[in-house]
Design a protein that fits this description.
single chain; Thrombin, subunit H; 372 residues; nine-stranded mixed sheet; QueA-like; 9 helices; six-stranded antiparallel β-barrel; alpha/beta
Length: 372
């Protein structure tokens, strides 16, 4: 596939490859996405705005220049502590796999990041992955991010991104570390077209994390745990769709991860609330909620590509990859899209807890009455 090199969210020639539940492949203009939906479908998108999560500065102990990419946090409201990936000198013009390594990072090391001051709390599961704590008031931290931070960016787009390049048309709370870019497909005209077709639309808020670090060992840990929040209105919309046998369509891998994580916790029920997604979706995953997904085009070996294996088998994915290459689809966040219905052999399991709404934690189900 060809890398999309311009930060244009909805180019006029954008394409979507559609794969139905029997594995049949069709090619469409992405502007026709609403035509591929059915009356009664429930479409769920991620309304997270993107933080300026790339911070350049200095490792105080050694004086070396570094880049810190914020990568995760325990809750959507957390603003002091983040997991972060650290690079050495350089910037986005150099592919991440060729970036220099940072100095050895130790607990207590201080980082000067523009107006922000941070402390390395500890290393996590990789030498370049740290728990970082910012000093100062919440106002000072927000001001430091706004004034000094930049959107996380990769070498395939050579011109510097502005933060609004990474915000979808429905962007709300600034909690994502990278853009939930499947939502670039949406605009208000498309949402109006969905409404005219009696297609329901809801949102969740999910702190989309890093797509790549360039380090194979670190990339193998992706996606990191990601907090998300499901609103009461979206939870009720999903409940009604389940009861009436309507499809639930995820706009992006973050939505699929959040809905399936909740369904696994509550045995097929999706109550409202904030949680931390810790699972990975792959070929072994049994989907309980999501019937189809609109996603970007992803390369083999990435966590996003692995997630698509939950929807279709490897033979179909191979045919998809061939079709994407044959038709010159563009990849990465400003590229084209794929719309995959869950394959017939990827059945939606029915459990006894669909009736009782018992959760893995043994929570007595206050959810049973309203959401079960």
């Amino acid at each position: 596939m060809i890398a999309a090199r311009l930060p244009i969210q909805r180019p006029s020639n954008a394409k979507v490859l559609f794969v139905d539940g029997q594995g049949n492949i069709e090619h469409h203009a992405r502007s026709e996405f609403a035509d591929l939906l059915r009356p009664g479908d429930v479409v769920v998108a991620n309304d997270a705005a993107t933080l300026p999560a790339s911070l350049f500065g200095q490792h105080s102990r050694t004086g070396r220049r570094i880049e810190v990419r914020l990568a995760g946090r325990d809750s959507l409201d957390e603003i002091r502590q983040f997991s972060a990936v650290v690079f050495g000198e350089g910037d986005f013009h150099t592919p991440t796999e060729d970036r220099s390594k940072p100095p050895k990072l130790k607990s207590g090391d201080r980082l000067k990041l523009g107006r922000l001051r941070g402390i390395v709390v500890r290393s996590l599961s990789h030498p370049r992955l740290i728990l970082l704590q910012f000093e100062g008031s919440l106002r000072e931290i927000w001001e430091g991010l706004a004034r000094h931070g930049r959107p996380i960016q990769y070498a395939h787009v050579q011109t510097p991104l502005a933060v609004w390049d990474t915000w979808t048309p429905i962007a709300g709370p600034p909690v994502a570390f990278e853009a939930p870019s499947a939502g670039f497909t949406l605009d208000w005209s498309m949402l109006a077209s969905m409404s005219a077709r009696k297609i329901r639309f809801g949102t969740i808020t999910h702190a989309a994390g890093l797509s790549s670090t360039g380090d194979p060992e670190l990339d193998a840990l992706l996606p990191l745990p990601e907090p998300y929040r499901i609103s009461r209105s979206t939870a009720l919309m999903i409940k009604r769709a389940q009861k009436s046998g309507r499809r639930i369509i995820a706009i992006g891998t973050t939505v699929a991860r959040a809905l399936e994580h909740t369904a696994a916790m509550f045995d097929g029920v999706v109550p409202p609330g904030e949680r931390l997604a810790t699972q990975r979706l792959d070929a072994s995953s049994k989907l309980r909620i999501v019937d189809a997904i609109l996603s970007g085009t992803h390369e083999r070996g990435t966590s996003h590509h692995e997630l698509l294996r939950a929807f279709v088998d490897d033979q179909t994915l191979g045919r998809i990859d061939h079709a994407l290459n044959a038709r010159d689809y563009h990849t990465h966040e400003f590229g084209d899209s794929v719309f995959l219905e869950r394959a017939a052999n990827k059945t939606n399991p029915v459990t006894s807890c669909r009736v009782t709404a018992c959760g893995n934690s043994g929570t007595p189900s206050a959810f049973a009455k309203e959401y079960g």
